[in-house]
Each structure stands twice: as C-alpha cells, then as structure tokens.
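Dear colleagues,

As part of the handover before I leave the project, I'm documenting each prediction I ran so the next person doesn't have to rerun anything. This entry is a single chain, and its sequence is reproduced below.
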Amino acid sequence: MCLHIVVGDLGLRDSLMVLLQLHGFAVRPHPDVRSLRQSNLAADDVVIVDLDLPHGQAVRLIEWCRHNSATGRLIVLSGLTGWAMRARLGQMGTAAILTKPFQAADLLALL
C-alpha cells in the first residue's frame, strides 16, 4: 500500500509526508492532479486529496478515481464542508472527510 498525497499547500503536504513516513507508510507526493493520473495506482493504494485544490480539480480527481477504479480508498481534506458537499462526496465513494484543522490521530486511524 502506498499513500498518494495530492495537496497544493506545500506546508501541509510536507507535514503530511513527515507524519506518515514516521509511522512507516510509503508516501508519494503529487503537486497536482496530472501527476497522480500519470502514476500507476494499485488497488490497495490510498489517495489523500485536498478539496481546496484550484479550479475544482479535487472533485474531478475523485470522479476519475471512481470511474477508473484507480484506488482503494479516498480521504478528502477540506477547510469547509457543508452537509450538501459531504453528501455529494459520500455518494462519490470517499472513505472519509477530514475537516482542517484535524488531529494527526484521526488521519492515522483511517489508515
């Protein structure tokens, strides 16, 4: 299993990488959606995506992952998620939605 991180904020991406690597996970950062799409995703890989990517990239990425059965689980990070957005993400098959700021233990528990 590899964790793919698609987060635009460099500070958040680096913090996630350090946290997850310290806990023994194989981690691969992606600066954008195109980078993730070009990688070979395994069925047991996990994608951690920030909903705050520019131009709706995150939602399109989630749809692409589900349409192509590209990954096992999707974990969405978001600054703001109302009930309508949570329902839509749930229908899209996301495993979890973590509202920022979140506790490291909450993310680790999902893995």
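The helical segments are 10-22, 33-38, 57-67, 83-91, 104-110. The chain is about 40% helix and 25% strand.

All the best with the project,
I.
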